[in-house]
Amino acid sequence: MTDLLFGLCLVFSLPYFVLLHDEIGHFTNDWVVRIQGGSYVAEQLAAELGYHNMGELRGFPDTYLMRKIDHPQRSRRNSAVLTRRLSDDRRVVWAEQQIARPREKRGYIRIKRRELSESHFVKKDCKYKFNDELWPDQWYLCDTRNMEGLPKIDFNPSAVWDGFNITGRGIVVTIMDDGVEHNHTDLQPNYDPEASWDSNDNDPDPFPRYDEYDSNNHGTRCAGEIAMVANNKKCGVGVAPNAKIGGIRMLDGDVSDATESVSIAFRTDHIDIFSASWGPTDDGMTVDGPKRLAIEALEKGVFQGRGGKGVIYVWASGNGGSKGDNCNCDGYTSSIYTLSISSASQHGIFPWYGERCASTMASTYSSGAYTDQKISSTDLHNQCTSDHTGTSAAAPLAAGMLALVLEANPNVTWRDVQHIVVHSCDVNRLEKNRGWKQNAAGFMYNCRFGFGLLNAEEMVKQALKWKNVPPKSICQSQPKTSLPQLLKSGESVEIVFETDCCKGTDSEINYLEHVQVTVDINYTRRGALELYLTSPSGSTTMLLSKRAKDNSIIGFRNWTFLTVHLWGEKCSGTYKLLVRDKEGNGYHGGVNRASLTLHGTKDMPEHMKEGKKRYSEYLDIEKIIDNSLEYDDDETSGDSEEISNRIDDLRDSNGGSLDWDQLVGQKLRSIQYRYPLKSEEELFEDDQSDVNLLTDYY
Q1: What domains lie within the chain, and their CATH numbers?
Q2: Catalytic residue numbers?
Q3: Predicted TM-score (pTM) of this structure
């Protein structure tokens, strides 16, 4: 009996981990093991402990993937005993069982739409002529629309092609996705096998797997946006039509930390730009990001890639807007090492799928409402498409423009590129959207669009005269406010940080770049929480908005939020972190820990010595600045929840289906509560971005 009790105590004292609701996925029978002693020791260890050594992880010396053949391939519970046995071996630095986690492509389901009459969109001649069949549909490269009321729009890359003879020559861009159809006639001349890999099958060929649904067309579409060949009578023209394009197949199967890390760190000595249009599930209830090896891979890329100048990681910000998601709950887009890209519709309106967050750096055009034009590109089976959508389509356009920047000035670093983006973004075509603020350094910012729309011509002009920014410093600050602090519904907690930004040390900062806030918060409903940071200069940035669908009781466990909204501001002074729950539903918890990490430079960057950024003389800054605090603007998330609930109820009562008129009627009834004196026509005209939310349900 004593032996039995001892055995039970031993079993229940062992550490174990079970995947919880917001950590969807499964444990695999693979372990990543970092070993001292090389491949011989790895083989020896695997043989002794009953593993099959799958080999050293590409790009990670002394790090091996080991497979336990006699172990279940899928499990909700980890195998703590096996992990401990590996970790306790003197030859092992660390060992970690792999978890296959959902990674979602950031396109969206095709929606039904009414066909527009031929007279609705009248093509107008574009100054730049190409014989590619979809060139007339590439309104975002050269504005070919002639629809009354639409502002002049395009990224102006043609001015770069003609004016500077810059088309991406010598620059290598790789798509991390579900594969690239590299024999496509509009991609093949630019395909670079040295920039390509299949992380799913561990071989050099990233060709996508065909199926009856063409479910693996995503990477091929993203690749075409960047590097479609010009003037070959096929599909369209890439933003950087002479750039080399590669593909990494990684999303067609289980995606573990090992899968991601090998992909992110692949050939960073050869690849200049990675484009990623995927991430954790955009369901408004997930909090997830890169794990140990993927973080290490990003650091390798920016610190060692491109000869030490750093590769550029472009990331789609996410499509969870209609579900009230916030991209600061996505650790890929909220990494300081990635350049997060949102999108705007052809009307210059924040689209229904867009996510609001403080980590978004900039935006490009993409799809919008059901009548809006989409993005043209290559498709599977040597076909073409004009139906590429979402932030999936926005990120590759940004990657293509950055290829032009790198050709213009190959000496810019990954941080220089971010400075160039901040300094050259265009606000004019987005001015009708709410939420615009101006920070103390003079930069306009918006949690929907970052610093604005990318402009290829302006970025290249900046790059041609660019002087590298000073070395970066990192300064950490602990709160003056004593923690923990209790929090409950209807209340808020203010946490104060006072810092001299490491003045007089090697870590001194005077001019800000990224600002990170790391928190440990327990709360009985995570989605009720909102977080806001106010800088010493008085700029307020929303770190987290309410997430109506997030019912997790886990809270945030050492989660890091990022804001770029304080870029260029003076560093030292008092920062105030506000954590609140405006709902009165009896939730409770507390803020256990909080820290502030400041990134920036001691010396002023050369481009800032010219004074504050000059915006267009046609932009009335005072008129477009939204003086209301962002955290008092809950309309988007509130509408999303209200529409979702009402439409779900109506769909159930109608046997599972709705038509467009029913959907529009529901939305109109919703927004008429806010604008009771407006007609339906005025509501469509003035609140088009809200109406766009409906397409998620159609």
Answers
A1: 26-101 (3.30.70.850), 135-433 (3.40.50.200), 472-606 (2.60.120.260), 637-675 (no CATH)
A2: 177, 218, 392
A3: 0.88
